[in-house]
Amino acid sequence: MSVPTVFFSGGAGFIASHTIPILLERGYRVRIFDNMLRGDRAMVEELAATGMVDLVEQDVRYGGAVQNAMKGCTHAIHFATVSINKSIADPYESIDINVTGNHNVFAAAADHGVKRLVFASSASVYGDPEKLPMHEDDRLDPLTPYCISKRMGEDLLGFYQRTKGLSWLALRFFNVYGEGQKIEAYYTSVINTFLRRIRTGEPPVIDGRGEQSMDFVHVRDIARAVVSALESERDNMPINIGTGIDTSIAQLAKILIAAVGVDMEAQFNPRDVLVSRRAADINRAREVLGWEPAVSVEQGMAELVRNAR
User: What is the CATH class of 176-215+244-280+294-307?
Assistant: First the structure.
């Protein structure tokens, strides 16, 4: 019997580095498709040494390259993307990579008849939520080219499902963090800024009252969700992947101070702040994927602090 093979765009990135080892344990071969501009080459070489991972160093904007690399693949994971803050600075590149790239991967997956495609969508498709927790059927209001392209990706998957029978799941990731993340990453910049100050004996400075919140979900939990989505019996829907807990910026500062083990209080910089809050309704993830988050924010942040020493 032939070995199932996963086409993995953006497979040299942070979340992929935690996902691919699980895929290998479960008997998959992995074909990483990545332009390596931000990819971790040392990690890819280490994985390639297993004999079960190969790298196609190419760009998702080139449809022919995607079609060729998809040959012989039974499954696909599409992570290649341009980040939120970069999409605001350069909407042209963002639309080019995120929209054209999405389409090239989905079309190739449909043409080659892959059994399942898993798409990294984002909680940012909701915009500023009207209520918490955020449910998959809530109104979508994506605000930046990145968020718009994620919503568009979900709609395109629906098109290929209806016209070519493509089986897909779109995972709406909330605020991913964990070991190995680039420090300039949009959602972790607040973690890193606070940590830098705490370590040098300066208290973290919080704008407003620190009521803004995020749903921080650990990368190991994300990786498990991706593999569960690849193997789930149910398909063709978006699924929130978060913890269901909204951690305010003020709470985050306390958690990090405790993790470093120093005695200090955060400072508040009184000013008007647009308070946005996030927390995922994760019932669908439980029902469809049999998935639950296993790493608490306290545990994950403590680990981050230990490993960053």
Answer: alpha beta
Structure tokens at 283: 């019932």
* CATH 3.40.50.720 intervals, the chain: 5-174+218-241
List, for residues 102-142, the tens digit of each pLDDT value.
Answer: 999 999 999 999 999 999 999 999 999 989 999 999 999 99
Q: Which two tokens stand for residue 12?
A: 């040299």
Mean pLDDT of the chain: 94
Please compute, for residue 54, the number of CA atoms within 13 A of its CA located in the half-sphere on the CB side: 5
Separation CA 187–CA 282 (nearest Å): 20
Select from 3.40.190.10, 3.40.50.720, 3.40.50.12280, 3.40.50.10710 the CATH code of 5-174+218-241. Answer: 3.40.50.720
Tokens 């040098």, residue located = 200
Range of weakest confidence among 6-15, 218-227, 269-278: 269-278
DSSP 134: B
Cα distance between the two ends of the chain: 46
Q: Tabulate helix, strand, coil % of the chain (nearest 5).
A: 45, 15, 40
**Residues annotated as part of the active site:** 146
Contact 81, 60 (CB under 8 A): no
User: C-alpha distances in angstroms, 15 versus 8, 182, 211?
Assistant: 11, 11, 28
- The DSSP code for 158 is H
pTM attached to this predicted model: 0.96
| 195: CB partners within 8 A, 6+ apart | 256, 260, 304, 305, 308
Kindly indicate the confidence band of residue 278, based on its pLDDT and cuts at 50, 70 and 90.
very high
